[in-house]
Amino acid sequence: INAEYMGFEKTDIEGTIPTSLQGTFFRNGPGLIDVYGQPLKHPIDGDGMICALTFIQGQAHFRSRYVKTKSHVDEENAQKMLYYGRMGSKPPASSTAPRFRDPSHTNVFYWGNKLLTCHEYSLPHCLDPNTLSTLGKDNLRGILKNGTMSAHFRYDNQLDRLVVVSFRPGVMGTPVISFYEFDHQWNLLHELTKNIDGLNYVHDFLLTPDYYVVHMTPFVSVSDDSLQKVYSGQVMPGELMQYYPELPSRFIFISRDGSSIHHVDTEPCHIFHFGTCQQNGNQIEFNAVCLPPGFNMQFKYKLWLSNATDAPGAFWGFTVDLREKTCARRQLDPCSCEFPTVHPFRHVPTTQTPRYVYLMGASIGERLPFTEVVKVDLLEGRRTTWKCNGGGVGEPIFIPRLGFASAEHGAEDDGWVIVQCNFPDNMQTEYVILDATNLQLVCKLKTRRHIPYAFHGTWWPEVFIRPSPKL
């Protein structure tokens, strides 16, 4: 689907769209499973397709477009597959060294009159939020010197600034990680770059008043042997993601003023996604979905992006004492899960400890498919679920009812949860809106068509009918 614009008729809506629900839900993910007849080996090799679901005055409108990266446009013009995918997809009869596609498919977010799509091995692309037209690559006025920007960001609600991370693996030297903090006009307020041995992958991070927090994974190895295999086309980078027992599993706490770096080891795991975080002096509590040593990126049974049937993710909480260099962890929920999400405007808590995390989960006792939205109450240790009968759920996104004001006002779960549900039997997609306080159904929006499974999305409490942005 590459829909310019689509409204929802009354017959497409089950329930009632709240009139106080106003803004735009952006979603990014691979929109293709083949490139002009050449099947992709893994969904992660597909090009990004942006969906925008806009709510205004009790009505909803949908729009979607592909991100027009150079590789997407080149293949569109040639009408054939030209580029390799990082998960093993290869163009037919290719004898040249791999040229990797830039899918720009992992996340999408709005800030400072720019809609950016992200994939951590390349620069973001800037899109017009009104039309979703691609304006081009954006290095943020030359600031992204590593040539990359990772998929996830954090909002410092105490300082009202956006924080992003960029990294460069240690292919030609020591790995580099950079953090950038921006105001709403994209003025650079703070920049910090560090070289950290062994930190070869950064998908997500946490933010506290004093620290940037990342996980050094033991699942990414950069060696002469692996690099030679990749450069020769024998194997693609994603196919090498597996547990390397000789590598550390370690949390890195980098002080935002650059004065110190703390290394604290933890049990072997891989972390794509973090949840909430709270700093109390030298003690930091946070949570994440952790993948066990048996994890790899095999697209097994075509049910999920990794081998979750063998190595499911689990939601764990961590307590780290930076002075003592200790790390304790405990499992916070029993389900197989991924994609933890939190309140979008409370990434750096002020006084109250963050309480809620929303998960894309499987029913307890099952590993796949992901059929439930799970709300974890960290304070009382309770869980609330909503089940998509007959279909699968994507990443749940919390929508605060008070919009920007929710950073300081209102209950943490005062709002809604929106989730994309796909039904494989009839190839239909629905967007479901739940009451965030109890996960009771508010309404369903039936698209009457198939919208490909997406990765990540964000909510922005604005409706876009303004002049187009510029790079």
Helix content: under 10%
Q: What is the global morphology?
A: globular
Look at the structure and give the mean pLDDT.
94
| Beta-strand proportion | 35-45%
Count of discrete alpha- or pi-helical segments spanning 4 or more residues: 2
Roughly how many Å apart are the termini?
27 Å
Rg on CA atoms, Å: 21 Å
Please tally the β strands and state the result. 33
Helix/strand structural class: mainly beta
Sheet having the most strands = 6 strands, antiparallel
Uncertain residue ranges: none
Structure description:
Strands 2, 28, 29, 30, 31 and 32 form a 6-stranded antiparallel β-sheet that branches. The chain is 4% helix and 41% strand. The longest helix is centred in the first third of the chain and has 9 residues, at 70-78. By secondary structure, it is mostly beta strands. The protein contains 2 helices and 33 strands. The chain has helices at residues 70-78, 224-231, and strands at 6-7, 13-15, 23-30, 34-35, 38-39, 48-56, 59-66, 107-111, 114-118, 125-127, 134-137, 153-156, 161-168, 176-182, 188-195, 206-207, 211-216, 250-255, 261-265, 270-280, 283-291, 314-321, 326-333, 337-341, 356-361, 372-377, 382-387, 392-393, 397-400, 415-423, 428-435, 440-446, 456-460.
